[in-house]
């Protein structure tokens, strides 16, 4: 795929062309050429790191059907799953429908009942679960907050895998950065991610700002241009 893109661009762009993925540009944006781990939580999710010897490692990023824990897609799917489960146990389903989370999910997908929500969630091709993320992140319902907390934990687990396999005990400080819309818009996810990661490894130092991979791409382009 990289060769195809490079071939197409070479027809209109003069000079060397380097085709890289969002993992590399995110890492570059966060740490330039230095060591660190960047965790992405957007439509999908992954953790990607580089140690002081230049070795790299990825965890996650296996796609929405079998992975992408903590991503916007995962959050939307978990919200639907949990809401449907809760609707079976509540005594007053009409009151449950009026909660901000359920109302937001129904509105986002244009459905009016739990049965319609289940049908939409199981439709082929699969629905856009990531489109439900705004309804979850703006809701104050405890179900929504629990889903966001679990997203933070899942993202911390991805980072732990990379840190454990890539750094061992080599560094006294392990820099970690966040990127993606989930981190940018969900403060609770950021808080839980930070707390869980610090609890697992006190060496972790998390950058407070959410980095933009575009900055990494620009930096790499400037470096290539000399």
Observed structural traits:
226 residues, 5 strands, 54% helix, 5-stranded mixed sheet, 11 helices, alpha/beta
Distance, first to last CA? 26 Å
Alpha carbon gyration radius: 20 Å
Helix-strand makeup class: alpha/beta
Order of adjacent strands in the largest pleated sheet: 3-2-1-4-5
Major beta sheet summary: 5 strands, mixed
Overall geometry comes to: elongated
**Would you report the number of β strands?**
5
Helix coverage percent: 40-55%
The residue ranges in which pLDDT falls below 50 over 5 or more consecutive positions are 4-10, 16-20
What is the string of helix and strand elements? HHEEEHHHHHHEHHEH
**Relative strand content:** 5-15%
Q: Give average pLDDT, whole number.
A: 86
In DSSP terms (H or I, runs of 4 or more residues), the helix count works out at: 11
Written overview of the protein:
This protein is α/β, with parallel strands linked by helices. The protein is built from 11 helices and 5 strands, in the order H-H-E-E-E-H-H-H-H-H-H-E-H-H-E-H. It has helices at 2-10, 22-31, 72-89, 93-97, 100-109, 114-121, 133-138, 142-166, 181-185, 187-200, 213-225, and strands at 36-41, 45-50, 56-60, 174-179, 204-211. Helix 2 (22-31) packs across helix 11 and helix 3 packs antiparallel against helix 6.
Entry summary:
This protein is an alpha/beta fold and 226 residues long. It has helices at 2-10, 22-31, 72-89, 93-97, 100-109, 114-121, 133-138, 142-166, 181-185, 187-200, 213-225; strands spanning 36-41, 45-50, 56-60, 174-179, 204-211.
